[in-house]
Here is the input.
Amino acid sequence: MLDILSDLNEPQRRAVAHRDGPLLVLAGAGSGKTRVITRRVVHLIAGGVAPQNILALTFTNKAAGEMSERIAALGTPRGATIGTFHALCARLLREFATEAQLDAGYSIYDRDDQLRLMRQALEAAGLKGGRLTPSVAHARISNAKNELKTPTEVSAEAASFGDEQVAEAYAAYQRLLRDNNALDFDDLLLKTALLLRDRPELRRLLGERYRYVLIDEYQDTNHAQYIIAHGIALHHENICATGDPDQSIYAWRGANVRNILEFEADYPNATVVRLEENYRSTRAILAAASQLISHNRRRKHKDLWTSRTGGADVRVVHCDTGRAEAQAVAERIEAAARRGLDYGDMAVFYRVNSLSRVLEETLFRASIPYRVARGVEFFNRREVKDLLAYMKLLVNPADDLSCRRIINTPTRGIGHTTLSRLTARAGATGVSLLEAAAQAESDDLGAAAAKRVRGFAEMMHALAGNLNHSVREIAEDVYRRSGIAEALSAEDEERRQQRANVEEVINTAAEFDELAGGTLSDYLYQVSLVSDLDHFEGTGGAVTLMTLHAAKGLEFPAVFVVGCEDGLLPFRRDFGPSDAGESDVEEERRLTFVGMTRAKDELTLSCARRRRMRGQNKPCAASCFLSELGAEGVRIEDLTTPQRPLNVRHRGGFFSGEVARGAQTAADEERMIIEAMADEEAEQPPPEYQYLGPGCRVQHPKFGFGTVMHLQRRWPDTRAEIVFDDVGPKKIVLRHVELELL
DNA sequence: CCCTTACCTTTTTTT
DNA sequence: AAGGTAAGGG
Here is the structure.
């Protein structure tokens, strides 16, 4: 017991030793928060609390996994519930399905599914093609759900025609979810929150089950999560919230910083512990980060301090282009490696995932090992989603969305016409698509089509006969009998990759059988709530590339924050005037703060003067954040080259005048040519374009060998006219084919 | 019905 | 740049 407390500082010790009653731990960046939470759990158990009575809620599965591991490492018996809000809710909703008026086997829709469904909802509500786009509608509805608002309430509060449309879309969307027997992420929280809000007996039951509630990253909880946590803790008030208002970076998805700011108002007798000693970063890093965050006006003052001395200055590097920036980062990484730093000790953070590409290319060329942490890349692969859709449909025959996805995947001759007829039939008789498929008749669809449709239904029926098998067996069964296996059997590179992905799904199923165990629907829930990030292990010997958001909670000896440019780091979507949601500069500043405070020893921030974004090369101004770091302990390195005027009017070869297309005057033309040349020099076009032009010999996968006659460089659909030795002249869209240059 | 081609939309971060 | 969708030809 003493061991647990001995290596803690005084406030940490108070937080760990606190037992009953509300506790708020305001933990500054790097102040040992995780350590406090895990110790606290251990301390509770050592003090006689049964592990089963402890509920620890985290924000990501990864954080939950880490916490379990650390607790186990301290030799504590397992049995505590440690997981994300969403996972807890999925579990509770299964347990209390009746109370929540849910059918067993409900599907959980991921973002992709949600947007698909939203598209349908907008269509059903007669709002298709209007100003309300699916993603905007989805965001608005998501926020409403997080505030526990029903469509009726949204409608009642509507202040404009646009709001009214959102309410209508919301109603239609919920109807569709219900028809599909599905929940989206927000529903998981919403339904659970409503249960807890409206059912005293459930509050009591769960309060007795979870006698100690711990919530990590409390600054990132939304209203629904607030209701859930407080509902469970209502009677015993054994609620421990940890977090840092300066690290609140999820307001955009409904997180409410007020939850943490008003904890003391919620619980007047709360014990408050402040952790302000930073054990992670050098003095320079901490000073720069503190300087930055001090520019936030809506903020409680806080002093982070460290007893560390020494360490290098924070570096701010200005570059010409995004590519040059990546190059500079690569060079610094190499230099650090030569100094003896492990690649795994370095990380590069960026605001948007799309920035990873230049970095990847550059690191790859420099032979620097790296790994990219991406959100849901794997589970979003088409072939992966297809396989999972089969399994979802098996568990939940009402899941029309999944059914629609796979009814003709792989192709089995059920086309658009047949599908819409079938949909009409299902709608008219009020049955699911799958059921309509099973009952398909010749006079509706034509004999051949009806037969194919029934064949699909029969296959699903047959697969459903094996639901009592292990999940791995079911997955393999689906893989083979659905025809996916055959469709992917060809030996080209793409199929090979897809096969590998599908096999990886089967592996996760096998792993599930071994480790967790449970029904197919258990497996599907787990898969739905997991992201690639969760499996992202500490990268042995490779540089980590991730978004600033994903970086939260991690630390690295050396950190690079790239893309510190106005509009990108204080991110702004400068689109038309109709823009409703102004971006929150203070949240962007907190995000930068989070990134900076991940660094232990070395921190480099960088920006580019020009960057290629969304297909266009645009000039960029340095982020205002860079000038907010203060001057002390910050070293600025300017790698930009002075812009010299170019006296060139014409240039043959690659551009062959195409760049000046649309020029109205000679001055226009000159300007465009100069810009294009500057772009090309900066960007180093990839080799396949650099040398491809008239006279080149190429090999086409289908048409064989040929000679390029003409290159029409018209982005994005650059075309080449090629005379093939065997089949004669063809126009090829380069985007659609991989030409081999000989 | 399927494949190819032309056009168009993109709104960042994540459970 | 890249993906999706809608329309057209086979």
